[in-house]
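Intended use. Records like the one below are meant for learning the mapping from a protein sequence to its folded structure. Do not use them to infer anything beyond what is encoded.
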Amino acid sequence: MTMKPITLSQAAKAMGGTLLGGGGDTRIRQVVMDSRLDVDGALFVAISGARADGHDFVQDVFTRGAVCCLVEREIDAPGGPCILVDSTLRAVRDLAAYYRSLFDIPVIGITGSVGKTSTKEMMAQVLSEKFLVHKTAGNLNNELGVPMTLLALREEHEAAVVEMGISDFGEMTRLTEMVRPTVAMITIIGYAHLDNLGDRAGVYRAKTEIFHGLAENGLALLNGDDDMLRPCVITDISPEKTTAEKRLYGLEDGNDYRATDIVTQGENGTACTFHLSGGPLSVTIPAFGLPFVYAALAAAAVGERLGMTPDEIQRGVAAFHTVAGRANVCKTVSLTIIDDCYNANPSSVRASLTSLAGLEGRRIAVLGDMGELGPDAETLHREIGETVGGSDIDALICIGELSRFTCEGAKSVRPDLAARHFSAKEEALTILPSVLQAGDQVLVKASRFMRFEEIVGMLKELAL
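Structure written out for the chain above:
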């Protein structure tokens, strides 16, 4: 598959750059930022980073087949044509916006504090039953990843699913101006990136910037179970979006799309009934926990809107595979492990705890610190502990400096709860085998910097 036709002259014009060295009619086959990758036929984007400067590799990429380099300064004897701009980062965003405009296809932009990647994967899987779908690779969802996602669109693609992550005000506006989603989806407004955004109200303001780029007659698909998204009025945020449509999805009454009759089946997934515009639809989601119910429901709603049949939607949901570290259920000789250690914030931890509490047998939560919570970090960790204390979870292991407040919160609600705190993983790893019993259901969850995959690895080898 190749890019839609775009020449060096067109690219230079789109980026407001100056083409040096001729070759204006040369066609770009791909756009690459990493000089270590295949650069044949590529426009190489020279980014000046903290550890490396892409300008140092201009001559090398030309010897390996690059057709042009995007640069911020002139290079002596570069070996090929260059497009000179003030900022290569800003220029590649401009190029991505131009390239996106060449496609008249459904583009689903997904943001939110929790569940972006899982929802993106579910959405792409369901839509692939009818369309050739392009999606964000991994979690390349920031101001470098989103333009590269758009520039990887190929002529054959019939739909795109783009994950959009931010950590500060204004970032979403820049992303949505590139993506121009026909469907703007927000999963939840939670406690994330509070160091920059301040509080949930700030998270709401930052995330809803996505409406600025919503296509004419586009759809805003919002989690109606979220207290801030349910009353959201699009024109309060983007007054010009008078033709945009708002639809809500969730579990509660009053949502346009609902999931009911939810039965958690542990390693066998989750069964439920979706209530879509065309009527009820029974589905089995091959993943653990309520977050995947929300993800599948949103995907089903978009699929129906794009003309998919109930059979196509059912097949798409059934074909889903979880992403590593995101509620993967692993059955060992001794334990059932819910590996949810890719990341964590209060909203996602609560959702995982709710799912864990619904399982049969002895339920153990292994929780670590949650990052980027600002001055409320202690309170938010303590509230997670109170949630554990008020649930049917049988034992709690807390690891990390902030997680001692989680342990204290749990004990304040249920003093007899088997709850222990450890400052470091190494200390906890020595005690876990004596805490666990054969047949336990074990949730492992923390922010990425805690590296709880080490705990998951140990549990997988454990024989009780």
